[in-house]
From TrEMBL:
Name recorded for this polypeptide: Type II toxin-antitoxin system HicB family antitoxin
Length: 64
């Protein structure tokens, strides 16, 4: 099953930089946008594997 995740990216000094929207504290980079996307997939796998302790995430809280 394919899962879609959102990411934020920008170009700086010829490199593509980015982070997953749910994990803004963990950035990666690539020389091309395709390399950045592959690195973001690898980062997602690492962050969701449970092997890294203390991973910080972003969530929403509904308040009435």
């Amino acid at each position: 099953m394919m899962k879609t995740i959102r990411y934020i990216y920008w170009q700086d000094n010829g490199m593509w930089l980015g982070h997953l929207e749910e994990y803004p504290d963990y950035m990666t980079q690539g020389e091309t946008i395709e390399e950045l996307q592959e690195n973001l997939k690898d980062l997602h796998d690492e962050l969701t594997s449970g092997r890294i302790p203390g991973v910080r995430r972003v969530a929403e809280l509904r308040i009435a």
